[in-house]
Amino acid sequence: MTTRRDFLKRAGSAAGIVFCSCEMLAAAGPQTPQPQRLPVMVNGKRIKTIDVHAHCHFHEAVALMGDEASRVLPRTKGAKEHFIVIEERLKGMDSQAIDMEVLSINPFWYRMDRDTAAKIVEVQNEKLADLCASHPERFAAFASLSLQYPDLAVQQLETAVTKLGLRGAAIGGSVLGEDFSEPRFHPVWAKAEELDAVLFIHPQSTPELARRFKGNGWLSNTVGNPLDTTLALQHLIFEGTLDRFPGLKIIAAHGGGYLPSYAVRGDHACFVSPENCNPDIKLKKNPSEYLNQLFFDALVFTPEALRHLAAQVGASQIVLGSDHPIPWEEHPVDLIFATTTLSDEEKAAILGGNAARLFGMAG
After folding, report:
1. Is residue 52 a contact partner of residue 320, using CB atoms and an 8 Å limit?
2. Crossing angle for the helix pair 265-272 and 224-238, nearest 10 degrees?
3. What is the CATH number of domain 35-359?
4. Which regions of 196-275 does DSSP assign to beta strands (E)?
5. How far apart are CA 353 and CA 46, in angstroms?
6. pTM higher than 0.85
7. Element spanning 91, H or E
8. Residues 91, 104: Cα–Cα separation, whole Å
9. What is the pLDDT of residues 149-164, one digit of tens each?
10. Domain residue extents for the chain
11. Using only C-alpha atoms, what is the Rg of the chain?
């Protein structure tokens, strides 16, 4: 099986760069380029690397799930590391050449009652704020929201941003299959727009297709997660939500799912089959053009995939993402450097400049 490191080694070799294991580096001697480490430099300039896709959990919040607590943590490598031990997390970030992680918690509370969901969110947001305050140069965070109760989510978002100093909110791809374009969620998007808060969409598979996902390959994740994000973004576009709230700042996980790979098909949909389109919804531009106002993490694994993403949405709309501590992408910075189609300015922007601009941080 071809590994991620094997691919980068081949891709880097084609551009005169070699990515090797630690053993190979030791044997090859000092002339072999090392994997990126802090501080990261681009064309002699120090770059603050910002990973917008990193996860954590807190024991106190998970315990509030009662009998369902055992189902909260992902069944993957790196699951136990969600419960942050500061020294170990910082070592992991250093090994990835990451200056700052913007932490998020994938929603596991959407099916809970109002009081329980409110308590989980309160605990998580306060603990995220405390963690960020203790290491402000290394951590920022997205708030949790009880989106199944939009009125409560509005209050939680305002408190998180204005009182706790969190940077926005992490949300699922839907709320138990209900799309975010539904009018009952509009007050949340209005509040996010008002606060200039960033929304990070992280998928939760597509449970309606659970039967089709059975079998080898963890298809509920590898297919279900990108599909969930694709559907979420398409509904926000086609239902006019992004026209209604043009100031929304949205980051889509995993490179935006499948949408950037075939976005232009949507531009033809209402011409080919007008009966499947609502004549009362008149979009202000072509559906694919909305991708240029969204942001996407660079968790797409290969230089060719990143080249295509940048060609579709613009390098200015891409931010660094690793999924840490889940080991989907253990060398996120190396991928950016291996993508030789990017200019130095574009590499610097993806590594941290775009995120700094998006979150209003010092670069």
Report:
1. yes
2. 60
3. 3.20.20.140
4. 198-201, 249-252
5. 11
6. yes
7. helix 86-95
8. 19
9. 999 999 999 999 999 9
10. 35-359
11. 20
